[in-house]
């Protein structure tokens, strides 16, 4: 029995539903300062050197592995970041959390419905990916919580940032594990390439967040 066509239709429906959910809706506005009003705001004023908030984001993103992804995912928050490296790192972690939660929601739907038709190896890869991304969500959420309550100076502050670096690094490893699980899955599976492509974009955002966290930590 050929199940590829029903799975393709199901996958398309899931993606259409998820596109209707804005990324910001997946964030908790009581916990992070990433969710901003979508009303138009006046452009930030240039400082005396002509280096504005958007320039700061672009310059900071050059230290990451994926500077274009970094800039486009964070520039929306340039006014709120206000050229503050701590705020920049915190917002980057928040954006990473939103991305991985959205990916996890996609996998939840796919894994539940793939049980009724996909190849066993593909089903196992989906469930494993969903599981490790769940761990990544917890680790990034812990990182964001720690970033919000940073305090003290010297060794105390460095210890707190070390926790964030450890959790974000572990989250990135879990995201790598997700895509690794699809290496032995047939390319005939309709969702394989799209899931791996989307997971790759999630990894880019998390990698960038970790780089900005490291940059902030190294300059404490």
Automatic annotation (TrEMBL):
Q: Where is the Pectinesterase inhibitor domain?
A: 52-212
| UniProt KW Disulfide bond keyword | yes
Cite the InterPro entries for this sequence. Invertase/methylesterase_inhib, Pectinesterase_inhib_dom, PME_Inhibitor
Which keywords are on file for this protein?
Disulfide bond, Glycoprotein, Signal
Mention any Pfam family matching this sequence. Answer: PMEI
Tell me the GO molecular function terms: enzyme inhibitor activity; pectinesterase activity
Q: What is its EC number?
A: 3.1.1.11
Q: Does the keyword Cytoplasm apply?
A: no
Signal sequence extent: 1-25
Question: SMART domains of this UniProt entry?
Answer: PMEI
**What family does the entry list?**
In the C-terminal section; belongs to the pectinesterase family.
PANTHER family noted in UniProt = PECTINESTERASE INHIBITOR-LIKE (PTHR31080), PLANT INVERTASE_PECTIN METHYLESTERASE INHIBITOR SUPERFAMILY PROTEIN (PTHR31080:SF64)
> Could you tell me what this protein is called?
pectinesterase
> Species name for this entry?
Anisodus tanguticus
């Amino acid at each position: 029995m050929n199940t590829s066509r029903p799975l393709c239709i199901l996958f398309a429906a899931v993606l259409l539903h998820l596109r209707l959910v804005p990324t910001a809706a997946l964030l908790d506005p009581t916990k992070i300062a990433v969710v901003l009003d979508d009303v138009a705001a006046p452009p930030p004023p240039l400082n005396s050197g002509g280096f504005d908030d958007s320039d700061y984001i672009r310059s900071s993103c050059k230290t990451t592995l994926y500077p274009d992804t970094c800039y486009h995912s964070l520039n929306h928050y340039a006014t709120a970041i206000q050229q503050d490296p701590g705020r920049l790192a915190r917002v980057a972690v928040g954006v990473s959390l939103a991305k991985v939660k959205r990916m996890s929601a996609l996998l939840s739907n796919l894994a539940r419905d793939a049980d009724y038709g996909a190849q066993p190896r593909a089903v196992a890869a989906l469930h494993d990916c969903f599981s490790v991304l769940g761990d990544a969500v917890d680790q990034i959420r812990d990182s964001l919580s720690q970033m919000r309550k940073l305090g003290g100076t010297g060794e105390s502050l460095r210890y707190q940032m070390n926790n964030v670096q450890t959790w974000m690094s572990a989250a990135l490893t879990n995201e790598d594990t997700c895509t690794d699980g699809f290496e032995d899955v047939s390319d005939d599976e309709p969702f394989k390439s799209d899931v791996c492509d989307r997971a790759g974009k999630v990894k880019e955002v998390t990698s960038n967040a970790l780089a900005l966290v490291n940059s902030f930590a190294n300059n404490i």
